[in-house]
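User: I'm curious whether this sequence folds into something compact or stays loose and floppy. Could you predict its structure so I can see for myself?
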Amino acid sequence: MGRIDYFDDENAPVAQGRVPGVVAAVRHDTGRLLLVRRCDNGWWAMPGGKLELGETIADAAVR
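Assistant: Here's the prediction. I'll summarize afterward.
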């Protein structure tokens, strides 16, 4: 089962918690923007992920 994203959905389940995360805008010298295709829903997104314990935001963005 893939992830379900809820946007302004009054029937969405109540959040169980929050996980800090980071995304990075990576641009090539020509101005092109790096995107990744998500494996759970096939949508394009900027690269990113959740922070690991003890990791800084900058370290997570580089990872």
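Summary: The beta strands are 21-23, 36-37, 44-45, 48-50. The first helix runs from residue 57 to 62.
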